[in-house]
Structures are given as structure tokens and as C-alpha cells.
Amino acid sequence: MQSGAIALEKCAFSLDGVVEEVTEQMRLVASYSGIRIQADWHCNRPLTVRSNRDRIEQVMIALVDNAIKFASDDGTIILDVSLSGDGRQAVIAVKNTGHIDEKHLPHLFERFYKADAAHSDGGTGLGLAIVQEVLAHLGESIEAVNEGENAVFRFTIGL
């Protein structure tokens, strides 16, 4: 993907709807690996965000797909939605039951980087780099962290 090569028109849309669609769409894919997927909401109201709906959906699908590949057997993937502390952004976290070795965390968003050869699926090592690039074009960022035994990929979208 070259800079400026993707359409990034922003408009208001229901984040709730996108999260539910991605959860349902990826549930079957996850079930083939014995993995459960669910959405957890930590907001007391429906969220309308201003961004590019198609690209946000693309990002969520890529993150969930990646989580499926690296989740522990019979694990769970959670799309966790909350508000930032100041209430100006939606925070989306894709959590899986698969810990990432700390030495890999700084490199996960590099093109062609593969953290775990044991999970090699023939992928190119571009998925997370593209996710980061799409979010950067939208003016957002992403982080990868471990929380206990869970790997967490977290990004924000302005309300």
C-alpha cells in the first residue's frame, strides 16, 4: 500500500453496528479453531464515531483474524469497547488468550515481521503493518501490550 493509495473519507457511523457485524462475521472463522469470540461493552450509550467505516471494519477484521491465529486452543477473543478517560474517543481493544513474548512487542507493526514461526500460516507479515498504516492515515494509532496472559491490540477513534 502506498501513502494516499486508499480512500479515507470520514463520516459519522455507529461503532456498535460495526463491532456487532465483525463479531458475527468472525465467529464462524473462530469456531473452526475452537475459539470463542464476543463483544464486551463498557459504555452506557450507543457510540457514534467519525471516521472511515470501511477502514475501521477492515482494521477490526484484521486484528480479530490475527488474534484467532495466535489465541491459545479453546481460547476466547474479546472485542472490548470503552470510552477514553476524557470521553472524546472510543477505545477498541482486541484481546486474546495468547501472550506475546516481550521481545516481539516493539516489532509487531514492522512490515514482514513474523513473531512466531510456530504459528506460520503462510502469511506475509504485512497484516499488522497495514493495520497501523490505515489507522495512521485516519489520524489514529495502535498499541500492542500484554495484560496478564492476554495479548491486547488497542486503538482509538474520535467521537
TrEMBL record:
Residue span(s) of domain Histidine kinase: 1-159
E.C. numbers: 2.7.13.3
Record keywords, A-Z: Kinase, Transferase, Two-component regulatory system
One Gene Ontology MF term: protein histidine kinase activity
Reactions catalysed according to its record: ATP + protein L-histidine = ADP + protein N-phospho-L-histidine
GO biological process, one term: phosphorelay signal transduction system
Protein name: histidine kinase
